[in-house]
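[[Sequence with tokens]]
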Amino acid sequence: MIMNNMDWDSSVKILFLLNLLCRKKASKNEIIEEFKKNNIDIKKTSINHYINKLLNNEIPISVEKIKNENYYFYNKKYDISFKIQELNAVSDVKKLLIKEKNWEIIRKAMSAFYKFALNIQDKNTRIELINFDYYSKINWALVGRLIQHCKNKDVIILDYMLPNAENKYLTFHADTIKVSDWSTRLYLSGILYGDNKLSQLPIDKIFMIKKVVKEKARMNLKTKVLTYKVSKEMFKKTGLDEKEGLSEIKNKMVTIKRPLDDTFFTLQRLLYFCPELYYVSDVNIKNLLKEKLYTLKDMYSGGIDE
């Protein structure tokens, strides 16, 4: 099996290559360009190695020789069988992909796995191969449209499912798509109409995009700076994320600053530092954090009582 005894980096690259060749013919130079577009480095010698890996595992990759050598996936009927250890290797690769939380790479890998699974006759093996847990439930066609709206910074109307299972139309200024710090869940980040702060909507709760209200709208967002203090020992375990800056290290305390542009993810970040979080500068965030901690306490207390 392709991914058996291969390292993490090679596994991702070979899945990306397989997905590319399933979609279109490509020369080595075109393959390298496609990899670059996705910030992945690859050498021509590596392409030969990965093509041979695919061929050795009976995956039909053909070469069209006209001006350049164009490689492509020859879609013929064939059957692939897996040994238990090979399925375990596939499972490990999927777990690594999910752990990395790079949803764009996961999306491409899923596409390759689905095409690959079409040629597996055993139903249980086929289901096992294409199962990506939470990501298998995502409407990727919807995500594709949201990606474009985020690039344009469009104001859109969403048909959204509320926690009580009722649907509501929300006017939303799309900004980015990101993964939760605490889970694999995908969120659409932007400004909810009427608010002047970033909000996050779980993408699995968005039913559809009803309308584009305004294209390429300017985002007017005033960003506060949050200061918080944690123990030096906890800081050593976590470090800074991409938004944070180190303000001061004094005695056994570390002072960190971050833009308060994202309440949901800021709360997730602060909860991660509990119980060694000693100071939070913003009163609203502090109260929300307390409320969240009391909720968690009640949940766990209820579980123990039962």
